[in-house]
TrEMBL record:
A Pfam family matched in the record: DUF1232
Keyword Flavoprotein (UniProt): no
Protein name per Swiss-Prot or TrEMBL: DUF1232 domain-containing protein
GO CC term (a single one): endomembrane system
Regions crossing the membrane: 59-77
Domain DUF1232: 39-71
Membrane topology: Multi-pass membrane protein
Entry keyword set: Membrane, Transmembrane, Transmembrane helix
Location within or outside the cell: Endomembrane system
Length: 90
């Protein structure tokens, strides 16, 4: 659970997370299939308008969108090579 909170704080600090994402996708150590899977998850999230909670319910509708996005970003962090995680303190 503690590791999850550490990753969540890292994602929220976008100044550190954006360079991490750029380096993740540019890295030759990350297999192309992992990069493609990450892009597929992000595109599927954007392309499919299915929501667990409809957005017209205000704050509650946005919470499920944020949850799904954070889950996808967590998976990207898990797939990153260890030296990249160490470099950015994840």
């Amino acid at each position: 659970m503690r590791k999850w909170w550490k990753r969540l704080r890292f994602i929220v600090k976008i100044r550190r997370f954006a360079p991490f994402l750029l380096e993740f996708f540019r890295s030759r150590e990350v297999p192309m299939r992992k990069k493609a899977f990450s892009v597929f998850l992000l595109l599927a999230y954007v392309a499919f308008p299915f929501d667990l909670i409809p957005d017209w319910l205000g704050l509650f509708g946005i919470i499920d969108d944020i949850t799904v996005l954070l889950f996808i970003l967590q998976q990207i962090i898990k797939m990153a090579p260890s030296h990249l995680k160490n470099k950015y303190g994840v």
